[in-house]
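Task card 7
Instruction: Convert sequence to structure tokens.
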Amino acid sequence: MPRNTNEPVTVGAAQALERMKYEIATELGINDYQNIDKGSLPSRVNGYVGGNMTKKLVAYAEQALAGGAQAQITQSAPTEPIGSQGR
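Output:
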């Protein structure tokens, strides 16, 4: 069972984020990132990919806001009270 329980706020965003992850890994010179065992990579390498994803997503948001877009991010309420997981 995957440990990541994060769900994208926008439906369909998961596939776009996966594509973005692999594109960024390629830009960073990490070839065939999709098929590499991520556990065998140093955390620094995986951190570079995630950090660059975050930088790019923040830049997209800043551009959208600067262009007059309204910030309308809504998040659904958690299905379980915070801190009750695993009990």
